[in-house]
Specification:
Radius of gyration: 24 Å
CATH topology of one domain: Methylamine Dehydrogenase, Chain H
CATH superfamily of one domain: YVTN repeat-like/Quinoprotein amine dehydrogenase
CATH class of one domain: Mainly Beta
Strand order of the largest sheet: 1-15-14-13-12
Number of helices: 11
Helix content: 10-25%
Distance between the termini: 24 Å
Structural class: alpha+beta
Largest sheet: 5 strands, antiparallel
Number of strands: 37
CATH architecture of one domain: 7 Propeller
Strand content: 35-45%
Oligomer: single chain
């Protein structure tokens, strides 16, 4: 069912701001801009960066290779897309807004704003420039906006069956492709109604980038792939059997055919090779119909590859590259570096970095900032195959299982837990093996990633960052589906079944471990219960991910119920859990 924007035209117009020059920022003042996205102006003269850390947009003169200025446009700008007539749409991930910008006579102006659901992350613009489709992560929503004169108008929104990220119009404008932020789902969406026509699933997680070849015949995807049948030992890591990183070319006609084998008929560039992994791909730009460049956020490199040619030419750039665009002349690639506030210039033909443009003075990272940088650093792992973010995408979980020494043995893969809101839920691990976050971090880097020994300072920084990761609001709140009466009745059912024994409020967990009638492949029967806070944002449940929906936890597995529930009782219990 489509959920049309629930406000009148009068309220909409009241929520839009009048066109006004954006505040000019002095780039000599130290800051951590953390550029997240990079676009090229339609005339090819300018590069614009969306700065997540400061809520600013920086503009660079491409010919002069210098910063022209920086403008305050929001709180945390995570996405930027060009529109016709020197306009751009920006997404503010903190204020949850779409912002229409214009760039005229060297100045940036805010033309209007439109309120969006929580956590907008990515957008794409229709071929005619009149429609913008936005993915909103935690509400699992897709939103359509129209560009009417100098205003952004929210047309409609739809709740999705998965948490979305990358979004892409196909050339004829009749289809939008939508990638799963955490797993390997790819949806075909009708842009007029936002109806999901069908969903394809393929072996992947952390789909971070998606684009088309210039001739429109190939879809390019950058993603990771965790093999739950491999173990976290040096052999499986070295050969890329545990965690692989991929740049995949697939025929677009196969993607658009619900029965087409796009995965089997595609071509894959492995991003990494034995001895030299390529952890955490973040973006793709096409050079021509047969060449592309992919950023490796975890190893501070880019890779240039040709279709059906093995391997990638790897080039070092700045710290944590996040976005890349190719010049109209196809001779240079421009790469934003998210953790050092620069743009690297890469000579495509020579496959080497030939320069760097500063976006301004940077301040010294605080402890949490240092932890964020380490969290996304694949060089903490053996040979650079994976970072913490590889399994804990955006601090959450990819929902998959990993066979590691987290439970002091191999042979019993466990579901990867979310790190959001974990700060006060010790002990950590399914078998409660770590009493502190610092101990768990040491264990993960040493035994799971087979990385170098962390210093005490690095451990403290990583722990500070993980402990700072907040839970998103409850899923029913974000989707505006909360039924207070059902939640209240569901809470009574929760109490009547003594669920609080293991999931005691307010944290909805316990320091103890319990036998709940399950065992892993090593014979372990007692598990520490994960917190139920934020459970509505998860897709797999139990230590072995045997349940693939919250309903299945009770309807199929009958988890710890003292008696059978009626359909209404089960619905109310689920309403309560989704409210946490």
């Amino acid at each position: 069912m489509i959920r049309f924007a629930a406000f009148s035209a009068t309220l909409l117009l009241a929520s839009l701001c009048q066109a006004a020059p954006a505040q000019v920022i002095d780039p000599s003042q130290p800051a951590l801009r953390k550029p997240e996205a990079l676009v090229l102006s339609h005339d090819g003269q300018f590069l614009l960066t969306a700065n997540r850390g400061t809520g600013t947009v920086s503009i660079v003169d491409r010919a002069e290779r210098k910063l022209l200025g920086e403008w305050q446009v929001g709180q945390s700008i995570v996405e930027l897309q060009p529109l016709p007539n020197n306009r751009y749409v920006a997404l503010d991930g903190q204020s949850h807004e779409a912002i229409l910008l214009s760039h005229v006579d060297g100045q940036l102006a805010i033309q209007s704003k439109a309120k969006l659901p929580h956590s907008p992350v990515k957008a794409d613009v229709s071929p005619d420039g009149q429609q913008i489709v936005v993915s909103c992560l935690w509400p699992r929503k897709l939103v359509s906006l129209n560009v009417a004169s100098d205003q952004l108008v929210v047309a409609q929104e739809r709740v999705l069956p998965f948490a979305p990220r990358v979004v892409l119009f196909v050339p004829d404008g009749q289809t939008v492709l939508l990638g799963d932020n955490f797993g390997g789902k790819l949806a075909n969406v009708d842009p007029q109604t936002l109806e999901v026509r069908y969903i394809r699933e393929f072996p992947a997680h952390n789909i971070r980038a998606m684009t088309l070849s210039p001739d429109g015949t190939k879809l390019l995807l950058a993603h990771q792939l965790l093999n739950s049948l491999a173990v976290t030992n040096e052999n499986d890591i070295h050969w890329g059997l545990l965690m692989s990183n991929e740049l995949r070319w697939v025929p677009l006609d196969m993607v658009l055919d619900p029965e087409g084998d796009f995965y089997g008929n595609g071509f894959m560039h492995p991003i990494g090779e034995p001895g030299r992994g390529g952890g955490d791909p973040t973006d793709i730009a096409v050079i021509d119909d047969l060449q592309a460049i992919v950023t490796m956020g975890g190893t501070s490199q880019v890779g240039i590859g040709k279709y059906e040619a093995f391997g990638l030419f790897r080039v070092s750039v700045g710290q944590h590259p996040t976005s890349v665009v190719v010049s109209p002349e196809k001779d240079l690639a421009y790469v934003t570096n998210g953790f050092d506030d620069t743009i690297s210039l890469v000579d495509v033909e020579k496959a080497e970095t030939i320069g760097k443009i500063s976006l301004g003075a940077t301040r010294k990272p605080e402890l949490v900032d240092q932890g964020e940088q380490l969290f996304h650093n694949a060089r903490l792992s053996m040979e650079g195959w994976m970072s913490c973010h590889s399994c804990h995408t955006d601090g959450h979980t990819n929902g998959l299982s990993s066979d590691n020494l987290g439970d002091n043995s191999y042979g019993a893969p466990k579901r990867i837990l979310s790190l959001l809101g974990k700060a006060d839920t010790a002990p950590f691990g399914w078998l409660a093996v770590s009493d502190t976050m610092e101990a768990q971090i040491h264990k993960s880097v040493k035994n799971t990633m087979h990385g170098r020994t962390l210093s005490d300072e690095e451990t403290s920084a990583l722990a500070a960052y993980v402990n700072s990761l907040p839970l998103p609001p409850p899923i029913d709140q974000l989707q505006q589906t909360r039924d207070e009466a059902a939640v209240a009745h569901g809470r009574q059912i929760f109490l009547q079944n003594n669920c609080i024994k293991c999931h005691a409020p307010p944290l909805y967990t316990s320091r103890e471990s319990y036998d709940v009638g399950m065992h892993d492949k090593e014979g372990n029967r007692e598990f520490n219960p994960p917190s139920l806070r934020g459970i509505g944002h998860r897709d797999t449940f139990f230590h072995d991910a045997r349940a693939t929906s919250l309903r299945d936890v009770f309807e199929i597995h009958g988890h710890q119920l003292s008696s059978d529930l009626t359909d209404q009782q089960l619905n109310d219990l689920l309403s309560f859990l989704r409210s946490l």
